[in-house]
Predict the structure.
Amino acid sequence: MNDLIPPKSTIRVGHFVPELYQSSQTNRGCTGCHFSMRRPVGQNRWFHGSQLGVEVAGTIGGRVRYVAGVVEWNGNLQNSSKDPYARVAVKIGGLALDGRGTKGAGSAADNWVDNSVETGAFVYWGNPSVDSKDTSGKPVTLDDRFLVLGGDIFATFGNLALYGLGIFEKHSRPTYDRRDVWVERYVARARYVVLPWLIPEVTFEYFNTELDNDMTYQVAGSVDVLVRANVKLWVEVIGRRDVLASFGFNSARLVLDVGF
């Protein structure tokens, strides 16, 4: 296998979340995390989530990361088309992307500190077959070829971590009567380590398309409390606004994570 891929590379085969942006590999599996990445566009049910495929990733000089992959459809009708994608990221400062070097920590105890900036860009080409209906209600199959372009930045300064993600999509036919539809998805997140065991976080997400009444944004606040090394308690509160409604409370939950 080492003869088939470049040195210092890894390969994934099976079901996985394509590495399109930095936090797609690190966000926890909560209901509110990246809700905008899972919003469908018209009748196209594709979303930024787990797909079946193969992915090769690696680093160059420890500071440049590359990703390339091909995956199957998700959320729509099965077809023989494949979805290719690629990502390139660069990290300045802190621990290198291959795990070498030193962090910008003030002391060995502050092991979460990594004074650095990582920025990346990606492209994804989707080829789904979409189940829809014509004006008379008769079932039809649409070919909504779409292009996804995006970029993100992750910066850490002492106890503060900031993350931003912007995604732009161009869909050829997400509904029977609409063509060439643009889509925007944004995520902004701030996290601060108050104490090693107390970490609050605020996340803003925005989703908008050119389709009628198809805009939503939400604000999520959460606090992680590390009770023990293998026990974590976190609380999450979410407020959300749809285009035809005012901003208001959406959900809240308290979760206890225990690892063995």
